[in-house]
Amino acid sequence: MGSNETKRGAARDTILQAVLDLIARDGIDAVTHRSAAESSSVSPGTVTYHFPSREKLIDAAFSKYVADYQVSLNQAIASQPIRTREDLLKFLVGTTGLSPDALSLACIEAELALLSHRSGRLASVLQAWQRAMEPILCDVLERIGVPRPVEAARTLTAICRGTEFEVMARGGAISPETLNARLETALRGLQEG
Predict the structure, then answer these.
(1) Average pLDDT over residues 32-45
(2) Element (H, E) at 70
(3) What is the mean pLDDT of the chain?
(4) What pTM value is reported for the model?
(5) Which domain holds residue 182?
(6) From the DSSP assignment, how many helices (H) and strands (E) are in the chain?
(7) Is 80 left (phi over 0), alpha (psi -120 to 50) or beta?
(8) Nearest CA-CA partner of 12 in 37, 34, 31
(9) Per residue in 43-59, pLDDT tens?
(10) Is residue 24 a contact partner of residue 109, using CB atoms and an 8 Å limit?
(11) What is the C-alpha to C-alpha distance for residues 159 and 181, in angstroms, rounded to an integer?
(12) In a domain, 69, yes or no
């Protein structure tokens, strides 16, 4: 890759990260070419060069988010393998936004879901994000004897995402112990079958 291509790629990534930060902080309606330029410290022309329309800018930002999410998830699992029930619970609690200050990722994910629902755009990106954790969870759930690991993985993930939504709606934190108890209860029921 040449020097100019490297610079263009870096500018593109900087713009997309700035857009994701805008979405997390102010929602998708805050995203314009001008706001992306201001947030990424580039000219509006640079944003337009890389992303001719607002739709392409937003779609590329969400696609970057999902790709980065999958890489981060794989790195987290590689550095801290999930082998036991306790590891599973610790992982799920650790990856769930439990306070209003820790919800930037959940806000991006909620905006992605809303955009996909309202317009049908990005449905495959949304599905990739929704299913990213499934094989990881299924593997450990199968090992600890949960009869229907796919259903269990989806249930546990839904509890975590629902908890993040509860934090957003209430504007207050939920303790790790509270989420752990919810997950324990669900896991017990899922193991009993």
Answers:
(1) 97
(2) helix 54-79
(3) 93
(4) 0.86
(5) 83-193
(6) 10, 0
(7) beta
(8) 37
(9) 999 999 999 999 999 99
(10) no
(11) 11
(12) no
